[in-house]
Amino acid sequence: MDVLFNSINVRDLLSSPNIDDVTSPLSAPDLRLLINRLQVRSVDIKSKVRQYILSHYSDFSTLFSQCSDVVSRSEHLSSEVSNLIQLISDHPVEVETKAVIDDIVIRNRELKEKRELLGLLAVVLELSDKLRFVKEEIKVGRVEQAAEALRELKAVLVTSSNETTAFEERQPLVYGLLKDEWTKCFEEMQEVLLRCMDNAVWFEQENYTVHLKHQSNIKGIDGIELQTVLKAMDAVGIMDYGLSKVADLMIKHVIAPVVSFRSTIVVEETNQESRNGAEANLKILPSADPNVDSMDGGSMYSVLVDIVKFISKSLCFGNCTWMICFGRLTWPRMSDLIISNFLSKNVPDDASKLADFQKIIKCTSDFEESLKELMFIASSDGKDERLSKFADNVEVHFASRKKVEILAKARNLLLQSDFRLPEDGTRRHSKVKDDKKSESSSDLVVNLLFTSERCVVSEAASGLMKLVHGTLKDVCLSSPRVGLEFYHAARDSLLLYEAVIPVKFERQLDSINHSAVLIHNDCHYLSQEILGLAFEYRSDFPASIRELVFADLAPRFQLLAEEVLRRQIKLVIYNLKQAIDGADGFQNTHQMKQYESAKLSIDQVIFILEKVYIIWHHLLLPSAYKRSMSMVLEAVFSRIANDILLLDDIAAEETLQLQRLIHLLFENLSSLLDSVVAINQSGKLQESPTQTLDDLIPSLRKLRKLADLLDIPLKSVTEAWEAGELVNCGFTQTEVEDFIRAIFADSPLRKECLRRIESICY
């Protein structure tokens, strides 16, 4: 049978099996040959198969017989199974069994539910009986038993806030009714207990007396013990709420008077029997002993300890838990009263008195220890030692008080300063500039630390620096904690100037006046003084604050000084340009009306500059004056020169008028120009200046040359350009050409001169 399973290679059946391209199509003869050979091969295979079957006939016969037997047995088994299924279907025992089991399950579930309902009913009845018991106990005045029952019911009926929402969604209705009933009982209990407290404890405000009655009578119920009331409040968890009113009244009518009394006091404690039971009374009386010091701390603390002992004995009955609760309600306010009315008022106002405060510190510490023994404050909680912490930090409190005083002085100094100059302030400062050996007795003329200049400052700046120097001297003599507070006081005082003065003098800063110049001087002076503070005091500072300096403040004041001066320069230039605008570009000055208008503008410019000169020359630092006035004059001269050079047609008579206006300007500003050039680079007056006016004010040379050009022939103008003279004065080629076209009529000579000017480029 191998021939059946071996593959037939078609290529072997072809006439030429070695064909290279297996994808090439076969020819017709090859196909016919292939068909014939396949038919021969097929016949051969069939013959071999037949021979194989005949040779194994017995084997095949046995195999087919076994298969027939297997099929017969399968059919018989199927018939037997069918008969069994039919037999079972005629008698359904399992159905009856399932029905019985289901019935048993249902009856068991019903029985369990009934038992649970019976159990729940029993619990509801028990809770209802307990609630009824609570009501009856409250009515007859047995509040302690009622409170215990309420506490037990609370554990069952009242859930925590986290569980309330989820539980209420699935709770039975009866549970909600019981809970509401418990709430009513609780509120009734709370009302009864609070009424008992009001009946047992009352105050006489006029006589500073506290009355404690050990038995209360309310709603016809006699003999409710105060201690029983407290136990009931503790049981139902309203101790804080129940004692809060008593604690508040105790603070107002007992503690506060003791702390705030100006005379020494004593506590009178009495116990008496009355028809309503025992009473305990506490009364505050002035001391009859003249030898007792008034409010020395020790006597006040002694009285307060007696009051706390009375509370512990007569109100809390020695119960530590109740005492801690009462202390928690009263101690914060009580300690605040002692601090504000006693300790803070006895903080020394001078460093030499710090040692005397040690007695108060010791009394304060002993007082808190006594309160700890009485369980009024917690012995293990450092947060309750508020008085000791305040007293131990007396240095800081002293420094804080001094800091407030320093800042108040600085603020008053700045607010009261009006920046007025003394009557002889201008004259004296003028002498400073004219004679370097001159010494002014005025405190307002100060030396700058890092320059050789002197300037006038305001009383505010002078007084402020005196205050800062005095404060820093105290830093050198103080402890690190006090020194740090003093350092911040000095720093904040300087910052007050930056915060107050620019706001107070905002209107003056927007106008041209001496106040703005003084503010500039102040800021410049303060910036240099601040830089010098580190060198002057740093080595004497306490080691822990030696790295603290004021260097970061110096640039702020320097920037403020520059900003103030920049605003002044901007205002001056704006006013000058407004005045020059009145000249209408210096057009048609050969007409009388236009000339008068232009002359008026020049007069206004001169007036403004003279006003500025009077203020600046006598107040500004020499270097600042030189720089600022040069900027102002440059703006004026460049504007006038540009306006004249923009004229497109200038008559011959008009040139003379323009020249006259320029000469008028220079004649009236000669002293002002001399004041600028008389100051050298170091800010001192000098005999032979190292800088010329042309160097300081480039437009000055241009305007002067322009005045000359208005009265010289065309050839001279051309030659001046060719020689480079006009370029050195700041003229451009376009300006010269336009100037020639405006003055000189069109002619071959003008064309020639313009050609010559165009041919030369610089």
From TrEMBL:
**Annotated ranges, domain Centromere/kinetochore protein zw10 C-terminal:** 450-576
Q: Which residues are in coiled coils?
A: none
- Where this protein primarily resides, as one coarse class? nucleus
- Family annotation (Pfam families): ZW10_C, ZW10_C2, Zw10_middle, Zw10_N
| Localization per Swiss-Prot or TrEMBL | Chromosome, Centromere, Kinetochore; Cytoplasm
Q: Which domain of life is it from?
A: Eukaryota
- The segment(s) forming the Centromere/kinetochore protein zw10 middle domain are 178-414
Q: Where is the ZW10 C-terminal helical domain?
A: 601-757
Q: Which positions make up the signal peptide?
A: none
Keyword Cytoplasm: yes or no? Answer: yes
User: Cellular component per GO?
Assistant: cytoplasm; nucleus; RZZ complex
Tell me the Gene Ontology biological-process terms attached to this UniProt entry.
cell division; endoplasmic reticulum to Golgi vesicle-mediated transport; mitotic spindle assembly checkpoint signaling
InterPro entries attached to this UniProt entry: Zw10/DSL1_C_sf (IPR046362), ZW10_C (IPR048343), ZW10_C_2 (IPR055148), Zw10_middle (IPR048344), Zw10_N (IPR009361)
Keywords, A to Z, come to: Cell cycle, Cell division, Centromere, Chromosome, Cytoplasm, Kinetochore, Mitosis
Q: Where is the Centromere/kinetochore protein zw10 N-terminal domain?
A: 38-129
Q: Which family does it belong to?
A: Belongs to the ZW10 family.
- Could you tell me what this protein is called? Centromere/kinetochore protein zw10 homolog
Give the organism, scientific name.
Answer: Nicotiana tabacum
